[in-house]
Amino acid sequence: MSNILQAIDVHKAYESHVALNGVSLDIPERSIFGLLGPNGAGKTSLIRIITQITGADSGEIRFRGERLNPRHIAQIGYLPEERGLYKKMKIGEQLLYLAQLKGLSKADATQRIKAWIDRFDLRPWVGKNVEDLSKGMQQKVQFIATVLHEPSLIILDEPFSGFDPINANLIKDEILELREKGATIIFSTHRMESVEEMCDSIALINRSRKVLDGPVGKIKDTFKTNTYEVEGKGRLMVIHPDFEVLEHKERENGFFYDRIRLHEGVTPNDLLRYLIGQVEVHAFREQIPSINEIFIRRVRETMPESLVEENV
Amino acid sequence: MDKIWLIVQREYITRVRKKSFLIMTFVGPLLMSALFVVPALLTQMGSDEKKIVTVADAGGLFAGQLPENEKSDIRYVHAPPDLETAKAEFKKSKNSALLYIPPFDLANPTGIKLFGRENLSLTLQLGIERMVNRQVEAARLRKSGIDQQVLDNLKADIDVATVNLSAEGEKSSNSMVTSGVAYFMAFLIYLFIFLYGVQIMRGVIEEKTSRIVEVIMSSVKPFQLMMGKVLGIAAVGLTQLLLWVALSSIVITGVSAAMGLDTVTTSRTEQIQTAAQSAGATPAETEKKTAVLLQSVSEGFANLNLPLIIGSFLFYFLGGYLLYGALFGAIGAAVDNETDTQQFMLPITMPLILTFIVAQSVMIRDPNGPIAFWMSMIPFTSPIAMVIRIPFGGVTAGQLLLSMALLIVGFIGTIWIAARIYRVGILLYGKKVTYKELSRWMFYKG
After folding, report:
1. Distance in angstroms (rounded) separating the CA atoms of residues B202 and B240
2. Where are the beta strands (DSSP E) in chain A?
3. Do A151 and A275 lie in a common domain?
4. Chain A partners within 8 Å of B218 (Cβ)
5. If pLDDT is split at 50, 70 and 90, which confidence band does B275 have?
6. What is the location of CATH 3.40.190.10 in chain B?
């Protein structure tokens, strides 16, 4: 799979601090890419470089193999974290204006706006000013503005903040559909659990450096500790050189919960066989670390202990 | 270029549709007309009310006969010659002032006093002084044996007709008309730069506070956004100006028609007639004089090079607006809200205010002097200075072209500076900006 976007050793410094320090990324075509990291890590700086709002001090961004240039603007849609629209402008006109700025013709834009308006049930509000709309409604309008010109790269900065659960689901479905249609989506967020399930690949950024990146499955594989959770009934006594009990909990009526790590070269089937001989197994699953856990672990590894608390 | 045009359209349409634009469009001409009609009306009303001055003539200057003039604003009444009694009487009356003339030496009159209730107005004091002077002069003349009648016949009142000698031949001019036109144009430019420059600033601040700017910036370059905004608002200003001119003419014509004769001219004519009559001219002469004056006013207009004046007015109107507009836009980008704009507003508005003040005094008096010349060359001051100079003639084609070229260069320069400040400032929130930082932004890469 080819990459829609490549960042190569990007540096960006402001007067008083370094925002990006040699960040390189590969964002695969037709994927959902999570750009994760705590506040102030440098995510927004990177996005502003990709959207050509500002430039990098050094390094290069490539869009489908071509050096990023103003012609790419029409192929990128951006939903900033700080949402905003012209308050005293009518919804319809505003969408038309923003679409035309992205290079869409008036006729095309009008047609697409109609389709999106119907899709999001905004028909009664088309002639209203933005300031007369509820916040959720404004968010919908802004989302439409982001994707109206059918960009091949959509950048969403904290996409779900400010949405109620119903609208958040609506947006989530739209995003998945956009990917089906061939778009690539970059999520930027510091709330890692919120997008983990949707992302195909991620990059973790901390303190202006990339600390980890790759496909989600692969990262999780790497950080797997070969630990299994077992629930069942009976008296479990593990005395075996291949298995190590990390946690053992006795519950009511003879139920138990254990976390057991397998040593190198031992398969889960070995453990299962061992367990079945002793107890009645109700649940058996591999313990997979969440991206959040991986991130915290990675940060702890790359940074002095005293700084961990304030950053996580 | 397409994008700039889109931005221009948006800025124009959203502003022209606003209620405040409509209101200003209709209220503006009324205010402007009021500027011309109200003074004329006030002169008419004011002339009915006379100030009464009590005269205690102990020195016998008036010889029992107080001066009387129907047209004068001051009426004199007798009081007992004794100062104390006169004072007491004056205090009881509602008269404006008490003039006391002690026994005096005609060769060297001293001790004449004017008492007022509060501070006397300067006009009243000057009027009385003039009257006393005339009386003393007349008394002296009588003493030396010259008859007042003879003297009146000797008085002259001559108007000098001004004529411009230029390459195209002789042209009669009227410096009053010229100054009026010059001042009016300078005033319009001054007013519009302020009104619409501030609108650019507000527009930028609005985009910043509503946070839409980040979306816009991912579609267009800061320079395009700023250019579009400045040009769009310029178009709004021009529209408003044209509407004002059209509506003002309608209102002025309408008001004049409704008041019977042309009030403004009539009251002017009356004043001239009064002046002429008090100078001892016969009614026939007076009428002739008035006719000559009116003719010279209309000739003054007819002989102004109107295409040049209007053409250069539009150029400097736009050029000045664009130059300052860019700077106002930069201020908007550098601050978070309007209250923070003050510290940056001052250095930008200073040259504008300074030129306008100098224009009213030095430049109108000496439109081709060195101050006027240099100010009409410097881009920051030329929009106002040049429109002051042009109606007077004397601006050579070379000077005009140089000044225009400099204004264009200046405009490109300020747009460049402003675009750089804009680019850095527009995405910066919640930070107070200093001059030092602003200057660093100009050379900021990115």
Report:
1. 18
2. 3-13, 18-28, 32-36, 58-63, 66-67, 76-79, 153-157, 184-189, 201-206, 209-215, 227-233, 243-250, 255-262, 280-286
3. no
4. 51-53, 73, 76, 78, 80
5. low
6. 51-154
On whether the CB atoms of residues A192 and A295 are closer than 8 A, the answer is yes
Is the backbone of residue B310 left (phi > 0), alpha (psi -120 to 50) or beta?
alpha
Q: What are the residues of chain A with a beta carbon less than 8 Å away from any beta carbon of chain B?
A: 15, 48, 51-55, 57, 70, 73, 76, 78, 80, 82-89, 97-98, 100-102, 142, 145
> In 3D, which of A231, A225, A221, A220 has the Cα closest to residue A261?
A225
- ipTM of the assembly? 0.77
SS3 B115: strand
Question: Domain range holding A229?
Answer: 225-286
- What is the dotted CATH code of the domain comprising B51-154? 3.40.190.10
Residue A68 resides in a domain: yes
For residue B157, the model assigns a pLDDT of 64
Tokens 């779900």 belong to A160
Answer whether A53 sits within 8 Å of B211, measured CB to CB. no
* Interatomic CA distance for residues B234 and B114, integer angstroms: 57
- What residue in B sits closest to A90 (Cα-Cα)? B14
pLDDT tier for residue B264 given thresholds of 50, 70 and 90:
very low
- DSSP annotation of B63 reads T
Q: For the whole model, what pTM was predicted?
A: 0.71
Alpha carbon distance B383, B318 (integer Å): 9
A3-41 tens-digit pLDDT: 899 999 999 887 778 889 989 999 999 999 999 888 888
Record: contact B6-A101, CB cut-off 8 A: yes
Percent of chain B at pLDDT exceeding 90: 6
DSSP 8-state symbol, A129: B
- Report how far residue B319's alpha carbon sits from residue B378's, in angstroms, rounded to the nearest whole number: 12
